[in-house]
Amino acid sequence: MEENRHQQQRREGEQEQRDRRPDGLGELRVLPDELICAILDLLAPRDLGRLACVSRLPFFQQNLVTEVSESCEKTFKFDGFNSLFLYRRWYRCFTTLDAFYKDDGYLERKNISLTSFVLLTDLANTWPARKTWTVDQFVEKYGETAFRISQRSSKKTTMKFKDYVSYMSCQHDEDPLYIFDDKFGESAPSLLEDYSVPTLFKEDFFDVLDEEQRPPFRWLIIGPERSGASWHVDPALTSAWNTLLVGRKGKIIIWWALYPPGRVPVGVTVHVNEEDGDVDIETPSSLQWWLDIYPFLAEKDKPIECTQLPGETIFVPSGWWHCVLNLETTIAVTQNFVNASNFQFVCLDFCPGHLHKGVTRAGWLAVQDRVVKSVKQDVADTNDSDYVNGSLKKTMPEHLENFNGFSEMNFSYDIDFLSKFLSEEVDHYNCTWGEGNCIGQREFREWLHRLWVVKPQIRPLVWKGASLALKADRWLACIMEICASNNLPSPLDDEKLPVGTGSNPVYLVSDYVIKLYVEGGLASSLYSLGTELEFYSILHRVESPLVKHVPDVISSGILAHEPNGSYRICTWAGRGVPDQVRSLNLVNDNCRNDDFPFGIWGKMEFESSKESAVSLPKMWPFLITKRCRGDIFANVRDKLSLDDNLDLASFLGDQLHNLHLLPLPTIAGHSKDNEDDAPRRALNGLNKDSEIFERHFVNDDVVQRNIFSPEWKPFIAAVEQRKKDLHSRLVQWGDPIPNVLIDKVEEYIPHDTSLLISVFKEEDGVYRVCSSPSWIHSDVMDDNIHMEHSPLTHCTNQAVSDGDSTSVDSGINVNIEGNKERWYPAHIIDFSSLFIGDPICDLIPIHIDVFRTDSCLFKRFLESYRFPIGRKPSDGTMSQTKFERASYRAMCYCILHEDNVLGTIFSLRKDLRRATSWEEVEMALWGELNNAWEANNHPIG
């Protein structure tokens, strides 16, 4: 018996010592624990349940069997398995930080001034927040308020504060959630009254922007023990101050770690996208870094450390790496800002390209060979001078190889040094804007111009920043050459910076507007100017009423930068191929002999070809027009009364009517077909094969393409192209587009997008299609509508027509009706985005950007437009098929738009975020279009 008992114990011991991992994981045993955990994080609950039927081992790896064990009220024993990786994850969930940093509570605190950062002790003494910002008082006052939660996901999550407090009290997360809310001033405005920006940091150049235009700049931060911010450099190389407001007196609450610019913390990886310069950082959580990496650092590799007590403020300068660990529950406020000391660094960060962005954050690591990049620890042990003289030289950009003293220099966070890494061939106007930039291109350009106007005392500094980010010095030299060649006055000091928010440099010089075409490179620029000049030619030839509301053209041509550094200018009115570009083969053979070879049809064919860019000489087409008086609608929007806005809607309806009636130029390769006849030709009956077409149209959701005239083909091809990867594009855009609608988008959009063209079934049962599309501006937005002051008590369209379109704003504001300004629309500008297609596309920027989905203004626009964009269904009901609804076409064009129009729609109309179908959104936005036929029964394309 005794021997049997010993044998049983020995067998049990052997069983306990046996590694059960291979049996528990099967074929997955070849994967490391780290990868298995990462895979499990991606699985849906149903898939996890299926996996549990096969093996319970993965659930031990994720600590998922705890709840099962507790529900069964018995201990589930699993021997024969251990993992240091999983133990560390478990330890991070349950460790406490009471003794993490030794502090007797009587540390001597004083202001520590360094060249790197500053710790300030007395800035918040008088703030109400020092007494009122406690967890208990927050629960009482803001318990029902939802705050934004920080998490390692692009999806934004909110939580009521009372629920977040419950979470903090019971959570054992490996990386605890914490409140990091940049919108707290909107959800809890009274919090803004509890503190004030310290005098030292009051200067903020972003304050010239409106609240909705400026990037996020202030955050409320609340987090439990073990939470914190992982390693990062503040966005756009801004500086920041952070004040801790809650905690036990004399008790160290937060532990900071900092590295100077260019020195990447051990354990952190910096990736730089070589196309748009976006910087992506892979970093462990704050707690993980402190527990798993910090203890093993050599003394020379350790960060600068700083502890923070309640009431203390820490200043983090531009470009500094920092990491924060909360030792107990904290409440803090932080703000980022731009001032004279970091302005040029912020402008540098917005510059297009990639190398300079990597260098500002990663120093020499950014210019290493790709293989060397993956071994950062080895680099830390490498002598800088040896490394620079070795492999760095091999990958050095060409324009840096002759940089004197480069091999002897160490990394320096100096604007002159860092700007050496900018690409010489890339400029701001001609490059993709990085998605990681905290402000859009339009807002950035407007920011610089506002600084130039509002803060003339800092113009030398603004000029340096604009020369970095916009290459303003290059464009000013071009403008001065153009002015000299056309006998125009040279730009004054006020006129040296480009204006507007478009993709091309535009200058206001005296009574003139000078526009350089640079977007997309030389070929694209030539087609943009050529199309605009062809459009103006047709506009005057047919004597369209629209001509009164388009600025007069003074001159146009091409500016070439010669190899010797000089400039050469040739005039060009759009006709023929300019001598300067004749040898570059930029014109399609079909268009070479056209009157306007760079006109609209050549442009559309060029844009559809998707040919790769080639190296071309430095040339820039330009256009000079008469300067309009007044201001753009974007700048006066808030000054307009309801009557002003209604007048604007009527004006736009009239002028879009005139635009869409313009005759089209003859398409390349086709004979002139009554070019000067009435612009809208009669509909063609499709009697032949009508039964076949009806079957395709109604049942198969497919249109026979040969029913369309050749003029439609480029537009149909462009729309079809936008349909590709539609679902993925909407997923990438994400919030605020509802996920439920994203999942339904492919069943809403037609399989064949040519069905969106004006195809109708007449009462005789015959399908008809418009034989020709229309000119479309495609960019009638708030910055392309020019407004003037009205000297009249009541504004009318007659006053608009009789206005002096060539005069310059006198600067005198006429106040009438109780000192209330009146404005009226006078001009539509910037026709460089002209296209040929469905005129309903022009309604999208007008209704969304100009009217901001106001149905009253949209209805007035349609009344003034004077004929329907839709067509009355054959049976007189709302719709026989969805394709007969103009609202359906408009909604589809919104979805298929190349820009994120949907994001704007759901930002403006928060009520539509609750929609469960696209039809619901369609009718709310575009339902008024379905009644347009009541005004006139003559359809248009």
Commentary on this structure:
This protein has 6 domains: 15-82, no CATH class; 112-339, Cupin (Jelly Rolls, Sandwich), CATH 2.60.120.650; 363-411, no CATH class; 440-516, no CATH class; 517-626, no CATH class; 661-782 and 830-941, no CATH class. It contains 36 helices and 29 strands. The chain is globular.
Cα distance spanning the termini: 99 Å
Mean pLDDT: 79
Give the strand order, joined by hyphens, for the main sheet: 1-2-12-7-14-6-5-3-4
Provide the low-confidence segments as ranges: 64-74, 103-115, 369-408, 670-705, 793-819, 871-879, 937-941
Give a short summary of the structure:
The protein is α+β, with helices and mostly antiparallel strands and 941 residues long.
Spell out the key features of this protein:
941 residues, alpha+beta, Jelly Rolls, nine-stranded antiparallel beta sheet, 36 helices, 14% strand, disordered C terminus, oxidoreductase, oxidoreductase activity, metal ion binding, iron
What is the secondary structure topology, with strand pairs?
Elements: H1 2-17, H2 21-25, H3 33-42, H4 45-52, H5 57-61, H6 65-72, H7 84-94, E1 112-113, E2 118-120, H8 129-132, H9 135-142, E3 146-150, E4 157-160, H10 161-170, E5 178-181, H11 184-187, E6 218-223, E7 239-244, E8 254-259, E9 269-272, E10 279-282, H12 286-293, E11 304-308, E12 313-316, E13 321-326, E14 330-337, H13 343-350, H14 355-362, H15 370-373, H16 376-380, H17 384-394, H18 415-418, H19 441-454, H20 459-469, H21 472-485, E15 506-509, E16 512-516, H22 522-541, E17 553-561, E18 567-571, H23 600-609, E19 619-626, E20 631-632, H24 633-636, H25 642-660, E21 684-685, H26 690-700, H27 713-723, H28 726-733, H29 739-742, H30 745-748, E22 759-761, E23 767-769, E24 774-776, E25 785-789, H31 797-801, E26 815-816, E27 820-821, E28 823-828, E29 835-837, H32 843-850, H33 855-865, H34 886-895, H35 901-908, H36 918-926
Antiparallel strand pairs: 1-2, 2-12, 3-4, 3-5, 5-6, 6-14, 7-12, 7-14, 8-11, 8-13, 9-10, 15-16, 16-19, 17-18, 17-19, 20-25, 21-23, 22-23, 24-29, 25-28, 26-27
